[in-house]
């Protein structure tokens, strides 16, 4: 038997069984990589919480819209901030009437009694006490800001719950990986037992046993890499297909974010790990 064929001895001798195992490994790898990519994009509960939580900087009455827009622009440049949007006093009045219809008389002939404000959303990865404190410390010296609403009374307990939720979600990922590894180990034992007669036959014919083992390992590494890469590509394609759904955007995020440089290394390490363990 030539050297290259030893790489695929499992497939050459038991192609049908290997095909079934490869299909099962693909499904498991697809599940694991989809879970992993979703956790990378969402940060667990971070993205959902950052989409629901806002810091509101209420400006003083009489602050011009140009200054309000400028404050929002400067706040948007802060590292923890994902978006900052200025709402004019007229916007605030319309929102007030939508929430409390029938109170138009409060305005009467007077000027708008409501001030403008800046609404601030944090980045998912900066959804923490430190991120909130950074934004507050940047806003407090601004003379045009009258009050900062950041939910200081409830945020510590909410962020604590977020950490527990993230720990639970990552534990779920660890469980998926553990099940994956157990199934891989069982499959490998089955393969080894199935190949004992064939390997013994080759050894009796003068083929070194360590050479057979090395070639099988190399072949398994290549095959595992192909399965892991294909599962990752399919998972990414699925994320791109469903990322337009509002629920996916709010909870997981946009699939385009996977192109961000900070995600490349974790994905490559996951692919390498999945390849090695297969």
Key terms for this structure?
4-stranded antiparallel sheet, 8% strand, alpha+beta, Alpha-Beta Plaits, single chain, 278 residues
Low-confidence stretches: none
The number of domains: 2
Backbone structural class? alpha+beta
Strand tally is: 4
Overall shape: rod-shaped
The number of helical segments is 11
Q: What gyration radius follows from the Cα positions, in whole Å?
A: 29 Å
Largest sheet: 4 strands, antiparallel
Helical content stands at: 55-70%
What is the mean predicted local confidence, pLDDT? 82
What does this structure look like?
With 278 residues, the chain is of the alpha+beta class. The chain has helices spanning 3-7, 9-13, 15-42, 46-52, 65-76, 89-99, 129-139, 155-204, 209-242, 246-251, 261-277; strands at residues 55-59, 81-87, 117-122, 145-149. The longest helix is centred in the middle third of the chain and has 50 residues, at 155-204.
Question: Can you summarize this structure?
Answer:
With 278 residues, the chain is α+β, with helices and mostly antiparallel strands. 67% of the residues lie in helices and 8% in strands. Helix 3 runs antiparallel to helix 8, helix 3 packs antiparallel against helix 11 and helix 9 packs antiparallel against helix 11.
Walk me through the topology:
Layout: H1 3-7, H2 9-13, H3 15-42, H4 46-52, E1 55-59, H5 65-76, E2 81-87, H6 89-99, E3 117-122, H7 129-139, E4 145-149, H8 155-204, H9 209-242, H10 246-251, H11 261-277
Antiparallel strand pairs: 1-3, 1-4, 2-3
């Amino acid at each position: 038997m030539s050297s290259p064929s030893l790489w695929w001895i499992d497939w050459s001798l038991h192609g049908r069984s290997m095909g079934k195992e490869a299909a099962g490994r693909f499904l498991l790898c697809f599940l694991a990589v989809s879970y992993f990519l979703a956790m990378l994009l969402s940060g667990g509960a971070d993205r959902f919480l950052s989409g629901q939580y806002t810091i509101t900087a209420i400006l003083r009455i009489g602050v011009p819209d140009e200054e309000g827009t400028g404050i929002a622009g400067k706040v948007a440049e802060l590292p923890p901030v994902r978006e900052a949007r200025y709402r004019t006093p007229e916007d605030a009045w319309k929102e007030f009437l939508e929430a409390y219809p029938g109170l138009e008389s409060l305005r009467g002939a007077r000027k708008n009694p409501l001030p403008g404000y800046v609404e601030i959303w944090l980045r998912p990865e900066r959804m923490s006490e430190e991120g909130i404190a950074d934004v507050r410390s940047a806003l407090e010296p601004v003379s045009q800001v009258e009050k900062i609403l950041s939910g200081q009374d409830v945020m510590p307990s909410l962020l604590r719950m977020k950490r527990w939720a993230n720990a639970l979600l990552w534990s779920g990922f660890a469980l998926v990986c553990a099940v994956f590894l157990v199934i891989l180990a069982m499959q490998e034992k089955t393969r080894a037992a199935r190949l004992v007669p064939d390997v013994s036959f080759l050894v009796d014919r003068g083929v070194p046993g360590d050479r057979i083992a090395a070639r099988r390992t190399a072949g398994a590494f290549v095959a595992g890499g192909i399965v892991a890469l294909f599962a990752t590509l399919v998972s990414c394609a699925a994320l791109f297909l469903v990322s337009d759904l509002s629920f996916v955007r709010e909870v997981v995020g946009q699939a385009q974010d996977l192109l961000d440089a900070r995600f490349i290394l974790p994905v490559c390490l996951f692919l390498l790990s999945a390849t090695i363990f297969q």
